[in-house]
Amino acid sequence: MNTFSNRLIRPGVAVLLGLAALGAAHADGGRRMPRDMPQAYTAECAACHTAYSPGLLPARSWQRIMTGLDKHYGTDASLDEATVRQLSTWLQANAGTYKRVNEEPPQDRLTRSAWFARKHDDIPPSVWKHVAIKSPANCGACHTGADRGDFDDDNIRLPAGVSLGLRRFWHD
User: Fold this and answer.
1) 161, 131 contact by CB (below 8 A)
2) Which distant-in-sequence residues (6+ apart) come within 8 Å of 172 by Cβ?
3) Is-contact 69 84, C-beta < 8 A?
4) Most exposed: 64, 101, 168, 170, by fewest CB within 10 Å?
């Protein structure tokens, strides 16, 4: 190969290798919803609450949640054995492993994790009780991309009836 070709190919190879490394670095998925989400996750879990991205909790939390569905935060959310196995496998494979979710939050509640509290510490209790929000677990009330695991502050919308004066609580 001549030197002119080498000068053209090497930067291209470097870019491709950089993109591959970036993809590997984000293999954990973080907060984003994995593309291979089972239909059962939407049908069973999102029927009652936000379908949380598995990367928001560590594997041990998901294991306890899936083995305690008969007592799922005060509700019997039992599923057939095949569905439990399918969802458990998917949740374990996509569980959070990065620094933010190394902790197992109290009662395996995402809303009681240290990072959640830190991100939402300025929001007054009255906001959580607003009729359009109801609880901190209702991520989709404010985060327009919650179903995709997108919690970017730039994509927050205030529910109808929430005072514009409270807008300051939605940004870091």
Assistant:
1) yes
2) 119, 153
3) yes
4) 168
